[in-house]
Amino acid sequence: MRTPRLIRTPRLTASLAAGAALLTSLTVALAPAAHAASVSSGTSAKGGYAIADVSDLGYLYVCDEGAKDGLRAVAHFYPEPGRGQYLQVQDADGSNNGCGPSRQLGLPRGVTYSLVACLRDGANGSDMYCRTTTGVIT
Predict the structure, then answer these.
(1) I need a surface site. Which of 4, 18, 65, 90 has the fewest CB within 10 A?
(2) Residue 43 DSSP label
(3) Is residue 39 one of the residues assigned to a domain?
């Protein structure tokens, strides 16, 4: 028994191309992001830096990375006015030793925010080497 051959016509080719484009756009739209936003601080003189992240599950955390420099990593979370509260997390247990405790944000999708990653000397010292990014709760 012979297998029927697909005869390619301009209309069929256009339909196949449109279907492939639609499938690609749906795949991109439905694919979860690894994180909603991430930013790293500047690097200290000894080579340490902080990475602040808002995960796609709505958690804020910060990691102390790079060379040991005696500084702690700090993340600041500033939601848009009237849509949540300021939060801060710190990683003070040494560089490259896991991340500090995370905080659940509990915000609805669509809330915009600023995320700041810094290094700090001590629990209440001044922030240094800060960098900022913006994001949207997804």
Answers:
(1) 4
(2) P
(3) yes
In terms of residue numbers, what domain contains 115?
A: 35-136
Would residue 92 count as lying in a domain? yes
Helix (H) or strand (E) holding 115: strand 112-120
Give the DSSP per-residue string, 45-93. TTSEEEEEEEETTSEEEEEEEES--S-EEEEEEEEPTTSS--EEEEE-S
* 87, 43 contact by CB (below 8 A): no
Per-residue tens of pLDDT for the chain, all 138 residues: 555 454 545 554 444 444 444 333 333 333 333 457 999 999 999 999 999 999 988 999 999 999 999 999 999 999 999 999 999 999 999 888 889 999 999 999 899 999 999 999 999 999 999 999 999 988
How far apart (Å, rounded) are the C-alpha atoms in residues 127 and 52?
Answer: 14
What's the structural domain count of the chain?
A: 1
pTM of the full structure = 0.74
In a domain, 24, yes or no: no
* Spatial distance between the Cα atoms of 5 and 17, rounded to a whole number of angstroms: 19
